[in-house]
């Protein structure tokens, strides 16, 4: 669809201003409409320039807005011409002064502000080369500065360091030589310019430091050239504020000591400390004082920003004496204090006026106190900045009068000063009590933290209490309690043992006397929590009143729904206070319980609120003895919430928690029967999300209570569990179901049909790997079945032998348990004889031989075998060539070790080391034996044995001299998994340190991949535990090996980082951009060394063996993007999405494999949808469009397979979806270009069906 440009031109020239206005409005709508093809817009450009001078202001305004969308539909050369013409007309406007801006100026600025996506690097460079010299030539005007600001914001990324320095110097001259708005806007421009320093310096700290040194030197030189006039002083400190604010946000040591000394010297000079308090009050000129203090305020603001810029060890210390002297002078600065005292009879015991009255604020803003209170606030802000450097400043603070002054300031007559002082005192509290922050040995030579703490307690805590009760917690100030409470809470938390004996009494009396409650002052909830956490209930005066207030607030829960979590958290603290008091139990039963029950079943509350209420109810039931009536009410409540979809999951979890921690609640058979019946229903439903939690609760009920339900209920439950076991493939779910079935057997003896059902279920599990099912669970089930059946041991044994798959280890484990429980040792002798005969030459099925070996291995772990020992199983392993028999022998070998563990384990490990040295293929079988040892009885294995296993395997791998190939991977992976289990079991040893030692060993340096691969596997095992801390140096070592040309190692490393992303998010977050992403980016392109040419008749096919590594790398990036976009914002997971976007465009979209393109497109879509601003980082939209068109133009080969056709279709749909996402972002940002619009319309035409089918 197109629009008629000629008609719009005619309307733009019409004499009717309304028609001109509407024509311009339609013009903009058409330009921003992605469905319209824009052609021939060049003809309207002269008309737009003419309309900038239209007599109708509304038409002028529309003409100004039209240039931004216009340049998105013309080529680069025409864009440069339009910009130059706008600038020329802006400069040549005769109807404006140098302190105003023209209409062409506004149009040019609008163009830069609203079309930033239009300017690629090449076009930006041309525009900058064209405009920048013109702007800097001659005197600066407001018009030029405004254009320069927008030019820097939109195109400043192309500036080089020399250009930035030139602009900097020109703006500094303007800031000092001009006045008023021109000077102020030039300083704003400096702030914009600073945003491009880092990129212009290529992130080199040295170059940045040189730039800032030059900036400050030039600034001070210009200031001195202006004879340090008052105007120059204001300009100087405005520049200081702008630049220091920028540097402080960098959080880098950018400023040199010499520059800091120069800045500090100018600050001290302009503070005029020597004349600060010399004049007599009656001689003071208030207007002059205000004039002087305005400048001092700027200086103190600059000081507050300078402190974080020099807050580095070895830099801050020389400045501390001067900083302390300045703060001491201003924190208590009040030159009119004597006059005010005479006028108002003010004394130390009078209250602070926290009034919000407009007249009072107006008086202060007019300088009624000579701006003294403003200076006190600024000095307190600077003090707060100083406090963030604990290890460097504690001595200076406490050796001076600063701490005392700050504490006195909380009683300041100005509410603003008092509030800022309260914040500073809170910082002081943390300084002297926080033992986690590091302290420098040099800065702490004279005092340690205990000294500061004791000094604070003896000298300052009593004074804080006095001011708190004499000046703050008084009727006149109670409306500002939120500010006061901010100090009271940490004071109690950190100084509870050091407060006076009557502190709590005075505090509670003040609260009660003022009639304060949670309904009138919701912020009290924080204080209640601190009191309940810090003191026993009997220690809190009038505790009943406070707790009753908390309980009554629950009745009006709807009013506090936004902070429901906080209220319920405090309730939980109340329940947990021990020892229990009578009034505590009474209030919990009479007030808390009914309020929570009523709300938990009320549908007027949201699902998440009701879920939180259920959790709180379970806490109450666990911690507080409840009445019989309330217990019945709880049963009724749980029966209702089990029926609601939004609460059933939380109800099951809460019931499980209650049953574990206070099983007396389940003494009522009614409750247990109700729950079992409900859970049986859930197990038979299609909602698999409830299976796991339901089975956990069933297991807990059987474990913690004397449940003895009806036969009908138990039968239904057992049938549901068996049905679930027949269909589930989830190993965790299977394990829980088997445990539940074990408990059910205690209540219901298994008849023949029931036994067959259990055995068939066990048979189903034998098709799974033995590692997927916990063997102790199988053994427990077999033991219970042996004890609770109607068949007898012999019959049960025969049924197991006939139904179970005897070639599987699980079957042997199950049958051996039956033999042990039923004392069927004659069967053991028969099986021994059968195996002996087979070894002597008798014919036996392989399946039967495997069973015999497995069975006797299990029995030997219980010392119930007479003919076979460790040596016999080892002999079978050495002499038999059948793989399955060797595997069985390896397991049996591991099990047989336990009879003489300390003798046989070293022998086994020595044999493994020997086989490794000769590269025997059966070396991995001995690792299976070791793994079986760790699985069988890991608790009984001593740490020394675990370390022997680690040392032996590491030594064997380190001594491997051959080159690792794909056939070695399974064995090395098994070795790594064993080492990982050892590291998990041996909690006394630092295995992360051992990992680092292995990565840095001579074997690794000499190119041994075996040990590297094994250590990567160990790292993955350790990363799987989300609870332990992890050393990021290990990740760094792992990633350093990604460049090694081994595909199996690459896959293992990327897979390991995948594990870390989800289980060690905080560790990964801190090193993602520096250590993880750069090497991963190197894996995104196909590598020639992994391409293999396969001749097939007359053709040659190229197979990319590195494809799997690339795919996994793209998937890892997707996981990292998804995690950084998740709700877990506390992780501070800041992924460099701009760099990822660049890699996806450069590598992903240009890959030859459809799978890679699809993954890259998925990542691009996720990045752009998370924040469309990232789209502006596409520096060359033309190249991006060309990449998309190249993919869309690919054709299937003539005899493409079905798989190839499906892959091609998936790629087309992915590109179409990406195009839709990009188009939506461009439309919302008004950044459409003619090239993109033409591409998008062509896409819709060429792929019409796919386009409309893709969402």
From TrEMBL:
Residues 342-367 have a biased composition (Acidic residues). HEAT repeats lie at residues 44-81. The keyword Repeat applies. PROSITE patterns: HEAT_REPEAT. Residues 341-367 are annotated as: Disordered. Keywords: Repeat, Ubl conjugation pathway. GO terms for biological process: SCF complex assembly. PANTHER family: TIP120. This is TATA-binding protein interacting (TIP20) domain-containing protein. It comes from Australozyma saopauloensis.
